[in-house]
Amino acid sequence: MNILKLLLPIFLMFLSLTSNAENNLLIKSGTVIDGVKNQPWIADIEIINGKINRIGLNLKSSVEKVIDARGSFVMPGLIDCHTHLNSIPGDYFRKSSIEDREKQFDQQLKAYLAAGVTTLLDAAAPKSLLPKLERRFKPNEIPRVKILAPFLTPKGGYFAGKHARGDAYKDLWEPVGSAEMIRKHFQNESLSKSTGVKVTFEEGFGPVSIWPTFRKELLEVIKEEAAKSNLPIFAHAISKSEYKKALKFKPYAFVHAGFNEEAPSDEILTEIQDSEAHIVTTLAVLKMALFMWDEEALNDPWLKRLVPKEQLKTARNKKIRAESIKEIVRSNAPRWVPSWVVTPFAGWFFNKSFIQKSLNKSMLTVKKMSEKEIPIVMGADAGNWPVWTTLFHGAGSVIEMETLQEAGVDNSEIIRAATSRAAKMLKIEREVGSIEIGKIADLILLEKNPLKNMSALRTLKYTIKSGIAKTPDEWIK
Questions:
Q1: Residue 208 in this model has a pLDDT that exceeds 90
Q2: Distance CA 45, CA 441 (A)
């Protein structure tokens, strides 16, 4: 009996080393940035069956696949907490075939792994998204995908119209106008895979409210049904008045930092801080919008490797840019203003200067939130709406982190926002988000130090998803 007890661990170790060999890996002598304390140290990391088995110096291992990481930096795989996978940048103008859309959809997903992103949150998942992913891919071929569902907006509210939804969002959750319909949405069996419910509080851009928001009694029903389903509320709000409305219902998180038009007061920042809500930053949605006027950015070799050629071609087209601006302005103008009045002056309202000013205000907001120790989380809002031509998937996550540095957020804090804190918000911190024994081996290897400059993320050598290591080119091919 004692001999059996002695031999059992040896037998189990033998099995672990001979099964799932693709998921077994030894990383030698890498500089580890763990995603929590982010105080670098040099170590070996042994990965068995896709999980971190041991961490230490000069580990002796029978694992066959070894990566020499001397001089490289090892950190957790990135987690992007705001994306829209079904939305293909610029597709509104290309009128692509179903086959072309599916091809770009696949390329976009792989671009995330090629950019170092191993987990995603689709922040308004159409009903067909997860079934499509399960049908088309094996788990380790794409990033881990989490979803927000249902997406709840009132009839006539933000993103409620069929024209706005188009093909990308044709099976998004129907706009609601009654308590019965809210309850019906929460009875959908697909919600067992949801991370949270998304509720819109957005009234519109500019000084005039153009979209209705939920009445108080309907918000109470949403709150009640969300609690029954154990789904935290993720609020879509971008202005002071919208934040104040949302804060009354104690949201778990805000999907945008917002404040594009006005700087947040100390009072509202204190309210947000007291609420303990997470804030998804989404600065890249404005940063990448500026690419419509930036040919140099669109010619960056790193970007060109990640973004499908069709999307870059559309992004460079000045005629399409003008049409994009007109459509964005038309969709955000008060309904009582005829489109023939708005369209000729679209470029006056929405231009490079306007976007830059909005970005500057949002960057200041995020910096103030970080200084207040409000828990910020990385999310780029890539895809967003296919009328936008430059909100690229994959690359957007890195651009988000670079823009956070530009805003003045500490680099160690940015790494936490994209790893351990993001995992905590998604309630998967026991699985991923930091480099610890027993966790899934979602890791990235960089040539340069991200604690010094976030541009180091562009020097990605390997993305490791559940122990499977590939170069960016290998992931994206």
A1: no
A2: 9
For 15, 234, 425, the CA distances from 271, given in Å and listed in that order, are 54, 16, 19
Q: What is the mean pLDDT of the chain?
A: 93
Residues near 236 by beta carbon (within 8 Å), at least 6 away in sequence: 158, 198, 199, 200, 201, 202, 254, 255, 256
**Residue type at 287?**
K
- Percent pLDDT > 90 in the chain is 85
Where is pLDDT greater, at 20 or 218? 218
- What kind and span of H or E run contains 235? strand 233-236
Give the span between the Cα atoms of 257 and 381, in whole angstroms.
11
Q: Domains in the chain, ordered, with CATH? A: 2-75+464-476 (2.30.40.10), 78-291+346-433 (3.20.20.140)
- Give the tokens for residue 168: 């990308």
Can you give the pLDDT at residue 341?
61
Distance separating alpha carbons of residues 27 and 71, to the nearest angstrom: 12
- Looking at residue 10, what is its pLDDT? 46
Report yes or no: 50 and 467 within 8 Å, Cβ to Cβ.
Answer: yes
The average pLDDT across 53-80 equals 97
Query: Half-sphere exposure of residue 254, counting CA atoms within 13 Å on the CB side?
Result: 33
pTM higher than 0.85, yes or no?
A: yes
Task: Please report the pLDDT score of residue 337 as a whole number.
Answer: 66
The Cα 259–Cα 310 span in angstroms is 33
User: Which amino acid belongs to residue 387?
Assistant: V
The answer, yes or no, to whether residue 174 has pLDDT greater than 50, is: yes
Query: Measured between alpha carbons, how far is 84 from 124 in angstroms, rounded to an integer?
Result: 7
The full DSSP string for 39-73 is --EEEEEEEETTEEEEEESS-----S-EEE-TT-E
